[in-house]
Amino acid sequence: MNSDITNFSSLAPIFPELIIIIGAIIILMAGAFLKKQASVGLAGITIALLLVVSLLIILFPTDGIILNGAFIQDSFARYMKILLLASSLFAIILSLSSAKENSLDRFEYSVLLLFATLGMMIMVSANDLMSLYIGVEMQALSLYVLAAMRRESSKASEAGLKYFVLGALSSGMLLYGASLIYGFTGQTQLDEIAKIIMLGDRSIGLIFGLVFLLAGLAFKISAVPFHMWTPDVYEGAPTPVTAFFASAPKVAAMALLIRLVMESFEPVSQDWRQIVIFLSIASMILASFAAIGQKNLKRLIAYSSIGHMGFALVGLSAGSLVGVQAVAIYMAIYVIMTLGLFAAILSLKNQNGYVENITDLRGLAQTNPFVAAIIAIIMFSLIGLPPLAGFFAKWHVFLAAIEAKLFLLSIIGVLASAVSAFYYIRIIILMYVYEPEQQFIKAQPELRFIMALSGFLILTYYFSIAAPLTNITRFVVGSLF
Amino acid sequence: MAIVGKERLQIISNLTRPTDERDKMTLTLFFFYLFSIVLIAAAIMVVASRNPVHSVLFLILAFFNAAGLFLIAGAEFLAMILVIVYVGAVAVLFLFVVMMLDIDFAEMRKGILQYMPIGALIGLILFLELALLAGSWVILPEVADSSVLPIDNSISNTKALGQVLYTRYVFLFQGAGIILLIAMVGAIVLSLHHRSNVKRQDIGKQVARDPKETVKTVKVKSGKGIG
Amino acid sequence: MVEAIVFLPLVGALIAGLLGHKIGDRASEIITSSLLVISAILSWIIFFPIAFGNGAEEVIKVEIMRWIEVGDLDLRWVLRVDSLTAVMLVVVSSVSSLVHIYSIGYMADDPSRSRFFAYLSLFTFAMLMLVTADNLLQLFFGWEGVGLASYLLIGFWYKRPSANAAAIKAFIVNRVGDFGFALGIFATFVLLGSIDIDMAFSAIEGAKNISISFLGAELNALTLAALLLFMGAMGKSAQFLLHTWLPDAMEGPTPVSALIHAATMVTAGVFMVARLSPIFDASTFAMSVVLVVGAITAFFAATIGLVQNDIKRVIAYSTCSQLGYMFVALGAGAYSAGIYHLFTHAFFKALLFLGAGSVIHAMHHEQDMRKMGGLRKKIPITYIMMIIGTLALTGVGIPGTSFGFAGFFSKDSIIEAAYAVGGPLGNFAFWSLVLAALFTSFYSWRLIHMTFHGSTRAEQHNYEKAHESPNIMLVPLYFLAIGSIFAGVLFYDQFFGKEKYIEAFFANSIIIVGHIIEAAHNAPTWVKWSATFAMLLGFVSAYWMYILQPSLPARLAKAMPIPYQFLLNKWYFDELYDVIFVKPTIRLGNFLWKKMDDKLIDNMIIEGLGRKVQLVTAKFVKLQSGYLYHYAFAMLIGIAALLTWEVVAGGLL
């Protein structure tokens, strides 16, 4: 009945989160009392804050399980936090140039983004079903508001509301699953749950709880059939917010999913692997086909991200160290590709606003050769063509699946990948074969920087980051086994 | 020693009460079934009644019965919170919304028959599976030993909660606090409009007003006007 | 320093290629040329201590990066500089820098000069990669790199259909050789367990007696590997049977012909055989093949050169023939003599090509010698340069003394080495080379006579307007002329002097077969004079036929139409290949295209599948109705499905 907080230094593993909380509250207060124009400066402070926290995690890693087992910091958590902090950071940078058009030039945007990041960090570090839920709700609530932040747009409001209602449903599932697991094991702490499962049989209540928990998390990574919100929300939300949705929350939810199944449900891995395989196959197939019929660029990206989560789950379904490592690599590459793609989209602006439809990209190679080249590189990488980064991402997950003898899954994955090439290549053809119909305003320097960075990393992946990334993930994933 | 039972609560009560209080148990059991039956009936009526106002009223009834169940379990604090927060605030808010927005629920229900067959099928499957779950409710001996803490009657619920809220569960408690803060920020972001052409009262400005700045004495010659 | 030599051209290529349109043609020219000059100077700095000091005591190895690690294969990207490489570095970077400078003048009117210079520099980089290779894959990388650059440069004027066709031909013929080369690399890896040069060589001793059955015959494995590797060399160095691409490659700009198709790339095959001399030396049979193929090429290319009328084609066949000489040297076991000829040949052949370029430049891109003549007065400096080149090529010198042009020393070394081999093969090679020397002298002087002497046959205004090239084109000629005169005599000891000198120079970079060199030095006097005599005979007959009796060649061609046509049509190799390979391939291609691809794959599989995909897509798009309760319902169906799956498949019932 007492706390394990004996002194302040024992809280060292949670320092990054504490800094984010304090920073967010200071920015909230500053924003409330300063003039409206200060929001740009506050965005700058937010960027600095995220940078500082990332550096803190990299330079002063402190691992441990604290707060009565509710919070864990290990190398896996730190890796995933770096990924999602980077995503948040770049999402803010992406929003700078278009903040005015998207009504994101308010300090609340920074504050909510910080709170969402905080929630995700708690998700990544959750070691208890309760802290897991707190983290999930914290990020979800912030995201609902972010989606609807452009009040004058009915599409944005619709997106926010849909996201909210369906998110509530998924939270219900998550909670129901958590309560079943507590009911059948008497524990909420993840490692304790595993111990209880080891002692007893796999009872039906436990498995049902597992299914409901996984369904709730599948909603967060938008795996089929819990993906229905994704296209509508991606389309309706302001584009920088969509960029954020497509990157950081996916990382956090995937990290949480990995920790949950690897730490608590390792003894019943046969059961959860079945579910993950189902989600993976459904996501890959549906996304590949549904994306072909899309006309809106953001909806297309939504389906693309659904498909990529399916591919990432291929790695997890192997249930092995190699598989989890493959997922960790996949998420990093996915984030790089996604942010680059959104930077490219946000840089395409004319007097009528930002590009929305795929056909707006016609002849882009002639008007904006740089942006067109970046988009083409990213598209080829999303398809998974060697030697681009996307190829290696897929290669790792399929290798893990084949090692685990999941041949059918691998074959379906490769076929889905082939079908998905159709719509990616269609964009490239639109850009390079057709005549341009419109002119775009020159992109902001920060967007061009992000595009160039992303393009560079994708192109030179094998030579630049492949080796360090593989080594780091191998080490990092080791902390789960 | 697998204890298979319909109501976990009862088992807990049995474990925790002394044997000479058994006659009290029958009374407890009676109220338990009373509250449970009314609760389920009210919940069904929330969904089934045609008039939305009636739905909300049934919801309030359901809350009260749930509070009763909490009381039987010895969780008087939760029972009171349920009544105060859900009945006093949430349900009343619902009632306001339902009465203010004139939604024709009958109209909305029209389409429901179209989805009835498949909906019923899915519902049935889920129900069967959950029934399966209830039928197989097994408490492991280890679990029974480890997790069910006897309720300490020597201190009150409120005090017991207070002892752990800021110590053992401080992380979750503060996290929940941040979630509420986010909800507040979100509500303000989404609903607060600063209209530019609306005149607002600024008390500070009013108090600081000085007659010298605002009042000017002018001598007016008769017949000329202020000019 | 080694890195600078190798990577400066790449830097130049990247700057000119990527930024060419921004910084302008002039800047591209200056940047690429000056980077190459730096690279050339550095090469000489590396070369001199090796040539005149105490040789390459140790091999310089510079590791750039770890490259591939798969199973037993651990490759590092290492720049290796030993004596052999140092020679090649000097040749490649010097000739390349001179050609760069020359091209500034030669290509002055071309609209896409920065592209040209980017390709030239890219080629140089690939060639330097090739010669600094520390393992066979690196060698192959450079090998294909120069192939690519060669393709780009032959087809530089891509609007000309003939240039495109020639580029494709060069590429495809080289594929045949490269296929063998790749197989050879695989064989080496299987056989010797490594494709790192040092490690592979150290394993040769243990692999000498392994035999494998290949195409039903029992073959010594090492012989097979050597022959496969030699196949690559034959393709790249345009040896007999795979030679057809080289004359056509003259479609490219003349500086390209000088750099790639005379001085450097085509000698890659020679370099490769020398570099892998321990492997070849282990197989007598492979050595004999090299010897015979070289001898045939030297002879047969020289015969074709006798009757060609295009000035560049004459020199091209001459190149082909000289490469044959080098292979004879390699096949004879006198590797150093082959490299010696490679070294001297680079200077005088580049000189001849650039001189020819100067002539073509003067004549407004006229290449047919029948429309030249009498140019001596118009372009005197070019004339002198061409004479020097011809003297070097034909090997003018006095045997037994130190008087002679570059080609004299190297060519005589080869002829003596061929004689030293002895036996029927050795005699065949010796006499082929002597005859080839006769023909070489004849066609070289024929070229000089037809171009510069006599009265002109050029169109009036072309002849009137003929002018000497600008200095920027002439200065590189001077340098090459110096090389053509002195490169032979200066380095005789290092390449073909006493065995101990050669050993001091080459250290362990190539195999040195002492008894062949000994025997070559002790060859009878008539052998040493044979080549000189053949050269004089060729000169006299050319003088007689083209100066004294100008009508004789035409009468001769009429009197003997069959041999004349046979030579004029290059032994009918192109026609033969057309019937054997090209036509059947086109027929097969047409069948696959129309029947297999159009009908079966496109119509039935691709479009059929496409239609199916569209149907499925339409269904999936319909699912996304936009109604919230549909979405929620989908989630419930999902959870019901998952639960049911777990209950049924998980055996929970």
Describe this structure in words.
The complex is a heterotrimer of chains A (481), B (227) and C (653). By secondary structure, chain A is an all-alpha fold. Chain A has helices at 15-33, 39-59, 75-96, 107-125, 129-147, 154-185, 190-199, 204-220, 229-236, 239-264, 269-292, 297-317, 321-346, 364-367, 369-383, 389-403, 407-433, 445-459, 461-464, 466-478; strands spanning 64-66, 71-73, 349-350, 353-354. In chain A, 74% of the residues lie in helices and 2% in strands. In chain A, strands 1-2 form a two-stranded antiparallel sheet. Chain B is an all-alpha fold and 227 residues long. In chain B, helix 2 packs antiparallel against helix 3 and helix 3 runs antiparallel to helix 4 (76-100). Residues 1-13 of chain B have low confidence and may be disordered. With 653 residues, chain C is mainly alpha-helical. Chain C is 75% helix and 4% strand. Chains in contact: A-B, A-C, B-C.
SSE order of chain B, one letter for each helix or strand: HHHHHHHHHHH
Q: Radius of gyration of chain B from the CA trace? A: 30 Å
Give the uncertain stretches of chain A in residue-range form: none
Provide a count of the helices of chain A.
Answer: 20
What fraction strand of chain A? under 5%
Percent helix of chain A? over 70%
Main sheet overview of chain A: 2 strands, antiparallel
Q: Can you count the helices of chain B?
A: 11
How many angstroms separate the termini of chain A?
Answer: 31 Å
Q: How many strand elements of chain A?
A: 4
Largest sheet report of chain B = none
What best-fitting shape of chain A do the alpha-carbon axes yield?
globular
Oligomer state equals heterotrimer
Portion in strands of chain B:
under 5%
Which two protein chains have the largest interface (Cβ within 8 Å of the partner's Cβ), and how many residues from each?
Answer: A-B, 44 and 35 residues
> Which outline of chain B best applies?
elongated
Radius of gyration of chain A: 21 Å
**Counted beta strands of chain B:** 0
Could you give the distance between the termini of chain B? 104 Å
What is the percent of helical residues of chain B?
Answer: 55-70%
> Within the largest sheet of chain A, what's the order of strands?
1-2
